[in-house]
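Quick one from the shared queue. A colleague (R.T.) flagged YtkA-like domain-containing protein as missing a structural entry in our internal table.

Convert sequence to structure tokens.
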Amino acid sequence: MKKKRITLSWVLVFALAIASCDKDEPLVVEDPTAGLLPAPVEGLTTENGYTFHFYSADGKLTRGYTEIFIALTGADGKWVDDFTVSRFHPLMDMGEHKHATPVGKVEKVEGKALYKTWFGFLMYTGQMDGKWVLDFNYTISQTEGKITGAVPQVDPYPTENAKWIQSFKIGDETYYLTIGSPLALKEGSNILKAYINKVEDSLLPYETVDGGYKIEIDPRMPDMDNHSSPNNKALEWDAQEGIYKGTLNLSMTGHWRINLKVLSTTGDLIGGTDVEGAGNSTLYWDIHI
């Protein structure tokens, strides 16, 4: 009986030793940025040595629309999991004149130490001698802080005559209509995504408008006698994804003008016009595939 007690005691000691080792071993956070490229933003280090890192699919921040991913490393260069980011505020500074721009909601990327959002930059860096500055809030291990005065480097549209963001008016109020992921569009049928943002204050971020509209599309090729492409579906609000979504069919490669009409949920025309002959709507996107 005594021998059995000694054996059980050693088993208990061994189990406690293993548990202690597991508890003391630091959590290893895997690289959350696989498949992404660093995007050019300066001034992202906190006072206590943490550094935020911005990424995009192609390593660029582009006028019109850019999906952005945010990760964090500690002073030791290791990835950090316990953080949040919020309230992104990009501001174009042209000296005497300043304005903000459309921004998306901030989401945690499932299963990764990574957040994502999007910016609809209205101008590129250097346009009218302007530069972008960026502020945002964060928490690290539940300690709050703020990055101020970070500097993103925003490129012009990647192709000539591209136009990924347009404004329209409802009364005296200004809204922006932004195409999502324009560089992912291809010949054939595409899921087309878009955002509507409202300007409440020109110096504050233009936040997204959740629902309430329908976006009709009429794709044409200006360089090919304005011919159209069939089998398109208007964009309607998808509450689950938080985006306007429809179907865009592009019958060939080249320059496409996606003519737009914005309607209320009751069918009243709010923005844009019908396409007549070789013309276009007053509201459109230009893309190249």
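Helices lie at 2-24.
Residues 37-155 form a domain with the Immunoglobulin-like fold (CATH 2.60.40).
Added to the table.
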